[in-house]
User: What shape does this take?
Amino acid sequence: MTLTKRIIPCIDVDVDENGDAAVYTGVNFEDLEYTGDPVEMAKAYNESGADEFVFLDITASAEGRETMLETVAAVADEVFIPLTVGGGIRTKADIKETLRAGADKVSINSGAIARPELIEEGAAAFGSQCIVISLDARRRFDDEGEHYVEVDGEQCWFECTVKGGREGTGIDAVAWAIEAEERGAGEIFVNSIDADGTKDGYDIPLMKAVCDAVSTPVIASSGCGSPEDMEEVFVEAGADAGLAASIFHFGEYSIAETKEYLDSVGIPVRL
Assistant: This one.
């Protein structure tokens, strides 16, 4: 039986000047613009035919604060598809509180890089299916990586970053994906700092490098500008799910239109 490819909208949530949760959209993790209310957007996506929904608190890790769990709970009340929540999750207790707030899965980046044992602790306590490891990766054209691919005629590796792409780690993203899988991660969520918000298409070399290295399902994120881009990341890279934000937030394409296109070109999706 062929597994269907998942189409996943994502909201990036921050705190506005009044201290309220708000959705923002940017380019390359910068130049963020107000996009809408997280609870209202979650409700709309739940009704749109999305397969899953992702809520990312985009400044929790950088600011060293906890995820906004009250907003997560309000979103969970409106979403009856699998909900993944990320941002500021650093301990097993954080995972527990996020799941109790209504998340089905947690997405962890900085917390797992700082202490990889968190993956094993989370998987043992709550099941691997709850633990999603997020990679915020960027291209580097030097000799400090482990896994190289050819990009534009040059050898390139991908570095993991933390704090919303603000800091490099020196960790090879492909090597880290392999380790995360070995430690019990149930999914790998791959973001490209270089492609984020550009709508020029997914970073296919990055996505393919990770997909080829692990058997764990891979969610491709960053750069989607059209249903054709999703087709490419499914066919060329082998991703299991395509995540997008801008094209859905601003009504350029609907979830239904995206799925209808993918179905028309032979990509298995849930209609």
